[in-house]
Amino acid sequence: MRFVNALAIALSMYSKIPAPAVDWNDKNMKYAMCFFPVVGVVTGLLQFGAGYALLTYTSCGKLLFAAVMTLIPVLVTGGIHLDGYADTIDALSSWGDREKKLEILKDPHTGAFAVIGLCAYFTAALALWSEADADMLPLAACMYPLSRALSGISVVSFPTAKNSGLLKTFHDGAHRLRVRIVLILWACADAVLMLGLGRRQGGAGVAAAGLMIAVALLTFLYYYRMSRKQFGGTTGDLAGYFLQVCELAMLAAVVIGWNL
After folding, report:
1. Tell me, what's the pLDDT at 156?
2. ∠91-85-98 over CA atoms, to 5°?
3. Mind giving me the DSSP string for 219-231?
4. SS3 234
């Protein structure tokens, strides 16, 4: 029962997927992060299904296809990770000291750089999806569980920048060693699946899958170094920032790798 409750907490916190209300107590929080990639699985399946249907059974143009693919993750998550991305862009663009950046992360107001960053993000996502075709969709769907597995690993592994906040709650409430192992297994399983799917598509698929995995790991390394240097550790906003950047980088890797 505690694993069902942990799943419900993960779904209710990180998505708009309906989930039963449960108590956020220590027992239920202990393994909640283990189920974070489940949101990615749902997102990937919806992306694959919608994308395949649009490209195979309709005569819609690339712009409509790209718009649908760009918006599906936002609808599934409710934009929670995009909020962290926008706040982080504001903080990094301030060029202030560590305390100033942390203050900006807590500020509920949206700054000009956040708006610019979101516009740039959606423009890039729209452009990349417009270059995708049906053969790329299985690989692209795999990027959502991987980004969440890596983000979850950071939550239970990286030092926290603040002594309070939602990420601190998940960090302290989790059984960190077991959760870390489960999330590493999630990441490894997803990487193996990506390589298997790529192999079925031939040389282009293998190149795209390998590039996606490499880009995800490099983005994770950048996130670790940036969060330590700029903020003294990670926060919920930074975890959301990483997830969005990682997914955009993997999407670019699919498109570029497929055309090498």
Report:
1. 87
2. 25
3. HHHHHHHHIIIII
4. strand
